[in-house]
Design a protein that fits this description.
The complex is a heterotrimer of chains A (about 625), B (about 350) and C (about 325). Chain B has about 350 residues and is α/β, with parallel strands linked by helices. Chain B has 12 helices and 10 strands. In chain B, a hairpin with a 2-residue loop joins strand 1 and strand 2. The chains are: A alpha+beta (about 625), B alpha/beta (about 350), C mainly alpha (about 325).
Amino acid sequence: MRSKRHLWVIALLMVLSLVAAACGGSDDTGSDTGNNNGGDTGTATKGGTIHWESEEFGFTNGFDPTGEYLGEAWGVLSNLMGRGLMGYQHLAGDEGNTTIPDLAAEDPKISDDGLTYTFTLRDGVKFGPPLSRDVTASDVEFAFRRIATESLVAQYQNYYVGTIKGLELGKDPGAGGIEGINVIDDKTIEFTLTKPTGDFLYRLAMPATFPMPEEVAGCFDKAGDYGRYVISSGPYMFEGSDKLDASSCKTLKPISGYDPTKQMILVRNPDYDQSTDEYRENNFDQFDHTINTNTNDIEQKVLSGESEFVLTPTPQTLRKYVQDPELKDLLHVEAGDRTWYITMNLNAPPMDDIHVRKAVNWVMDKDGLQRAWGGPTVGEIAGHIIPDTMLNGILDDYNPYGSADNTGDVEKAMEEMKLSKYDPNGDGKCDESPECQDMLEIGSNVPPNTDMLPIVEASLEKIGITLDAREVADAYTPIQTVERQIPLSIRPGWGKDYADSYTFVGFLFDGRNILCTGNTNYSLVGMQADKADECGVPYAGDIPSVDDAIDGCIPELGDARVQCWADLDKQLMEEVVPWVPYLDAAAVWGTSPAVSKWEFDQFSGTPAWSRVAVDSSLQK
Amino acid sequence: MAETLLEVKDLKVHFNTPDGVVKAVDGVSFTLERGETLGIVGESGSGKSVTCLTALRLINLETAEVSGQVLFKGRDLLKLSNEELRKIRGKELSMIFQDPFACLHPLYRVGAQIDEAVRAHGDFSKADAKKRTLELLKAVGIPRPEERYRDYPHQYSGGMRQRAMIAMALVHNPDVLIADEPTTALDVTVQAQILELIEKVKEDFNIGVMLITHDLGVVADVSQKVMVMYAGRPVEIGTRDEVFAQPLHPYTWGLLDSIPAVDQKGKRLIPITGSPPSMIRVPQGCAFHPRCPHRFEPCDKERPDLMDRGGGHPEACHLTVEEKKKLWAQREASRTRAAS
Amino acid sequence: MGRYIVRRLLYVFLVVLVITLATFLIFFVMPPGDPVTAFSGRTPTPQILHAVEKQFGFDKPLYVQYGKFVKNIFFGDEFGWPGFGYSYVTRSPVREEIFGRIGVTLQLAVGAAIMWVIVGVSIGIVSALNRRKLVDRAAMGFALFGVSAPTFAVGLAALYIFWQQFHLLPGTGYIPLSENAGEFFSHMILPWSVLALSFAAFYARMVRGNLLEALGEDYIRTARAKGLSEKKVIGKHGLRASLTPIVTIFGLDFSLLLGGAVLTERVFNLPGLGALVVQSVARSDLPVILATTVIASLFVTVMTLVVDIIYGFLDPRVRYT
């Protein structure tokens, strides 16, 4: 999923050092600012209007659920506007990462071979105005027809294409046109998969699969256009939906409640039946998401009670939150399910040598990197690849390259370096090899990358590596291009799409998914000689692959699946070593005193809109 | 005895500048009578223009120290209130300037600018003002005045602009017309026409004219009285005949030598050597002495007063009248020789 | 005159055409980011990439794309005239978006222009007439501050003082005049003032300079000599001459603003063209970038023409040739 939050997380840097000083230095609990994980989250008050201002919406596909990839959009769609076969409880942590039946009346019947999923739809779920009709199995099927429709650019179609039998990109396959999707009757739908897929239920909790009415959504054949006409199947809808004339495609005019350059207003959907839904509380009456180009203004309004939510406050505002005892509890630092890491290219010398990669892991001053980001508020130091919340805590204490205070272990690093072919004289530094001198590194030209660079340089120098560091506006394009052979980049971060580790490893370490350009497996784990050839680079040879291990985990279910991914994470960290993971990033939200109930939606990384509440009497 | 219109008494105008005090005018006295043209002559910087501008208080009084009197029909113009002065300007006392293009507002029609002058004094309706304007445009010799009335200054030739300026100056039949280098910017043929016009206006309206020029030739044509100025002070005053027949100041001689005269073709023009002095550091004694070929003992120490030393009219030169007469005769002779 | 205008309009057309070509080349040949991959998700399969390319029209040769772009501007597209295409980001016709915002920018610009002309010209006149006196020095001190103070900082400071500290005015945002006139004005007064500040300062200096220069002109002496009152001398002859050149500068300043007052719009959260430009550049929304560039250049070239024509009426020396 796309996220905008790192833009400002960056800016936290000064704050925490200040906080740490103010709170008395080494006391670890001092940094645990306003974290409200679980427990009492306030008493919900009903009614009122929620205000949330952002500098921009940032939608990746115009809010059309089929293609929309932005976390904040997912938060709104899954909490307020849509009910997929599967859904979430809209809570923080593990609970929030577990799917529950939403449009489906109960968990599906899964065939023994794990290939067939049969769902029965819940009674009483309806599309809101102007349709006001029952949601049927065909509406779910239609959502998949849209995913299959190439021109609609379903941005995460890869979770369905190749997994559901007969689902391929192309023209709209039409009703019944996807072999693996069988609408048995209005209330029953059956999916047939090409291979057992343990996280399939997660994939059915994604907004692209939410039921869509063909009589409206079918009018749009270009990517994103449906965004201004989204018909709700959830508790809220675009204001003005009832005015939509859906009698034909020609009469459709954008719904007034959503102006992509100004605001999105949601009001209660009169056709929503609370009794069909045990997880959404639906406290407020109206939801206003507004664009405000003045960041300072956005935050002032939250602090003064004119608005209620702000994502990733700026350092100044964060300081207020942290230092003012009355505001302290209004800052919410939650698990962001996102790892920030240094990527190493397994095909580019000297990083083609595992001992060098291990040495880099040993020597890296992760404490310094965390400080460059702003300290503990922005997230915990990562010891491995997949965020802890996604592994149910199995690897919480796993840190194969740990060191005292996380400042790096030079001794072990040098020991490791001695084993490398780039250190022929065995002094623990590879400075005698030209590959280690002025090694190319690509980073971003804005903080925190710019603040990280000196720390990375100082760390690497201890094992004899000097950098030719390039700070550029768009660092991703070069590292996504195999031909460029960039040995090291401090730029990347990766966030989950849903709470299964496949959304990490499938993109990041599957050798079969390597693309010559636009590649996300920056480390080129599992690259074969023919792919290197295709992309026009010399093949370094013996690049380790985890393809089989990935395939082994895909069909697994439940705890076994999580354990499988955890094992893969360990394998990657110890036998492949493609990264130096350093930060398990947090999602930081500030609220106003008028928010009478806070809940975090672990799936989308946003407030759990279906559970938060506002006390109108405290609003200004 | 003619009526005295303007009497200037010991006028001094000193400007304070960052570099020092500029004594632009340093003791000037003269009178102007009805029906008379007074020519004021001198090089640029001699103070002749400042004298006139001061008379109408058109200089910036904030930076200038003015002393003396400018009596216009008995009232001291330097002491009048702004409003009293305004009532005199353009009504009883008018002025025309050197560059007729710069002096007309480029963005207003010529007719409108004259109308404005008409309506500045007295209660004229628009139509009356226009009537008067047309009358005057005709009087100063603008062809097809009805058409030219609507023209802008840039559509006029230089001569016509000056005619228009004169028309503007005459709308209220003033008693005095001050013409500050009215022909300098014009072609020679046009110059003559304008001078003729001023002469005619003087006759027709029976007014006093102050004609400021650096050209003695112009003065010779139209003036009854001549004042020669140098470095802020008059050096010789007399009737035209007196000054031209027997000039008594070496500076006047220099000026006369530098006129191309129509009746003396082939005469060599002799410029005055040197350049006018800085008005901040005026030379001691006679201001002209550094350039004077006839300077002698007291010239660089004592300043000669303006007085009649027996030559028939006031002048300011230490030489005796006899010496002057002799020297002038010699100059005339050598000039004629050189020409033959 | 008629022929002159026709020729100048032809010139406007040419300039706009050249600008569209330049903008088109800059943004399509060397885009700041790749809109296609940005629009294709995390796994941009060749198929998806191709679909996006097709939707954006990138699959056609460049000259065809440009031809279509120009054709749409002049003859309109499926969304009406002028055809500016479809925003990649907001998924709506660009012309709707621009027309929805032009009004806000226009209101901002007009209000600010009225303020800065009134304030700037009066200060300039007072200053010139009291040259070197205390009033003049104070005014020129203000002007120096106004010219050099960054709009962004002044805007934030103004908000802090008038909204956050003393609650004299509401915060940011835009309330349409038709919705609530009082709210409209209370929301616009700060943006107007802040935007007007630097212009007012600049105009004050310019008017002062022009007026002082004009007052030294010979025709002012003439006006005095013919017995006009000081009021008329300065108020009519002096001002007319000193304000005429300002018309040209005003026309240009104003037309530039119509292309969007970027900083003011962003600080005060006004949904105008300037805010749109920033958003579009950040998101590589090429059709919107192109459309705003075309609109802005059109404003400037047309306004230049208008100013030249007006100038002809104000200054008879100007000839249309």
